[in-house]
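A favour, since you know our structure tokens better than I do. What I am after is a single protein written out in full by you. Could you add the entry underneath, on a fresh line?


***
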Amino acid sequence: MAQDGRQEESIAELRQQIAHSRDRLGRDLEGLRYELDFPLKFRKSFQRHAKVWISAAVLTGVAATARATSKTKVVYRTFGRKSGEQKKGEEQKKGLLQAGVAMGALRLAATLLRPVAVSFITKKMGSYAGGSAASRN
């Protein structure tokens, strides 16, 4: 009987140890989740040190802009060009410029004439629709 009592005590101790280890494991997992929650850490850090974060962002933007604008332009000279080729390029540029001006003028004319065209078409379609309705009666 003494052995049965000791066995029950050892079983109870084992169960208690298992329960304690589960609790410890649960606490450790919660702590690990908290340590690995980087978005929460960033939010808290930004809330606590907003001035530092904003100034760092501004300085980073200024540095990136300064670095991008400090690049020098490289001008290439072509030595094999003939004068005829230069004239041809200039003529192409003039042609493109004229085409651009013509397209702009057409677009402006279309914008200005659109209300006139819409009212004209509406009147014509209305007269056709009205004439067909009158002929049916």
